[in-house]
Design a protein that fits this description.
The complex is a heterodimer of chains A (354) and B (248). With 354 residues, chain A is an alpha/beta fold. Chain A contains 13 helices and 15 strands. Chain A has 2 domains: 3-236, 3-Layer(aba) Sandwich (Rossmann fold); 241-353, Rossmann fold (3-Layer(aba) Sandwich). Chain A is 42% helix and 20% strand. Chain A has a 7-stranded mixed β-sheet with strand order 3-2-4-5-7-6-13, with helices on both faces. A 5-stranded mixed β-sheet of chain A has the order 10-12-11-14-15, with helices on both faces. The radius of gyration of chain A is 21 Å and the shape is globular. In chain A, 53% of the residues are buried. Chain B has a single domain, classed as Thiamin diphosphate (ThDP)-binding fold, Pyr/PP domains (Rossmann fold, 3-Layer(aba) Sandwich). Chain B contains 9 helices and 7 strands. Chain B has helices at residues 24-38, 72-82, 94-100, 102-110, 151-154, 160-165, 181-199, 214-217, 221-235, and strands at residues 44-48, 63-66, 87-93, 116-121, 172-177, 205-210, 239-242. In chain B, helix 1 (24-38) crosses helix 7 and helix 3 (94-100) packs across helix 4 (102-110). The chains are: A alpha/beta (354), B alpha/beta (248). The interface between A and B is large, with 39 and 37 residues. Strand 9 of chain A pairs parallel with strand 2 of chain B, so a sheet runs across the interface.
Amino acid sequence: MGQKLLMKGNEVIAEAAIRAGCRHYFGYPITPQTEIMHYMAKRMPAVGGVFLQAESEVAAINMVYGAASTGHRVMTSSSSPGISLKQEGISYIAGAQLPAVIVNIMRGGPGLGGIQPSQSDYFQATKGGGHGDYHMVVLAPASVQELYELTVEAFNIADRYRIMTMILGDGVLGQMMEVVNFRDEEKIETFDKSWAANGHDNKREHNMITSIHLDPAVLEQWNIGLQNKYKLISQNEQRYELYNCDDAEIILVAYGSVARICKGVIREAAEQGIKLGLLRPITLFPFPTDAFDKVLDIPKAFLTVEMSSGQMVEDVRLTIEGRKPVYFVGRMGGMIPTVKDIMSKVKEIKEKHD
Amino acid sequence: MAVVFKAPHALVDVPMHYCPGCTHGIAHRLIAEAIDELDIEGKTIGVSPVGCAYNNYLYFNCDMVQAAHGRAPAVATGIKRCLPENVVFTYQGDGDLAAIGTSEIVHAATRGENITVIFINNTIYGMTSGQMAPTTLLGQMTTTTPFGRDPKVNGFPIRVSEMLATLEGPAYIERVSLHDVRHIKKAKEAVKKAFRVQLAGKGFSLVEVLSTCPTNWGLSPVEAMKRVEREMIPHYPLGVFVGANLEV
């Protein structure tokens, strides 16, 4: 059963959000994610939801903050420069412990950069981005089908932990068309929303949503609570794919659309008698350290491949802690690493370690 | 014994942190009385600003959401779009609303967002200790205009109500003052009307409240009240700018 459709990545994100029970979307146009808005503008009225084009990314994220305060499922989306503008609101959402979903379909930077795909917002997404000691959960899909699955999951994670969850994709994923299998119905879990500011109806004490605690002792306790939540998420929510790792000489580490290129590299290498594997983080925060524990003893080296100057590679090194050599190859500015780029690095590493 | 005067239920019975002679307390009371009289506490969600009133979520008995500096109209929009049957108000000062939050207030107003904004104009930043606000009068001394506001350097004070009144979105905009009892009573009626406009689904309502800041003005409470009448009202005339004939 279900429904099999050929759809564009950005549109699948929007459709998945609606299927997950999201009825409020606030956004501002920016390439290469604007199809999410277009889809929401058409579909939301049909399902009795709200689509609102905000006056800025800053306003959009604060509308999300307000909507999330009421306990409703809510989403915004943008691309790199727009996500920078949203950092203020993201920090407040983290501080006030509100559940919400945000999408970043990354493009090359810094500054206005370009509109071609990139993975250069990894640090911003996984290390906080705004001010204060906080994290979002960051999910990194690698196919249109996974955009669907992980967008639905993003709402559940957000509600389960009262946290902002980010879908971190790139321009390739947002713009490409693939077949997606939709389920007939989503299982929408119900969560306790007794904390929400939705009118006390004279039946309870007034609820207050806030991120300010001027007493440092109180603020420290609040922060300890946040850190405990991140530890719990790290225990419960690590997701990853291990592909062809069992007897790999080198394990490639890549996420998102780059992981797909790496699968091509693995096939090409096999034809040349080189055994490669792939460790694909699906959660970037929490970083899937469990996956590295599983495969650490197998390869001679790890090779991280990114569309950046080398951001995730820092987490790979922190996880491996010098127990195996870690190499990096990447392209920047909207250029996509080719099979040839990666193969030449593989051969260089192989020569060094054979 | 018959009770002839009591604290409004919509105010929490705790001491407020405001300075002596500051009119925030009066403004809070007027909002709470309006909420009580319209019997809407259970369905009201207030949005707290950044500024001296940052923690007025502790003072209002309705549900409250604290917003980032200037963003209250966007936060209120998010709340109202989720809960169109509820009553949503923001409480914002002149730094919050007329400087960093100019974009948010203009666009909430032009959308005709069905929310109520209580705009406290005391021509100065209070919480950060007396800097120039967009509403600071020409010649007024502040910690960032120590020789008085000079239009060649700092430009001119913004008349928010008149500016927003040029838009088609707002349903009701009035400027009131808290400098004496007669004006406080008029202010109360304006706040109540603003909530009634929202309840009737008419759209955006804003009440600009001329207020005092004795501490940062360097005046006694009594002198501060006199300054509102003598210096502020001539620049910020009282009256209804939108919705004078609106019956709700």
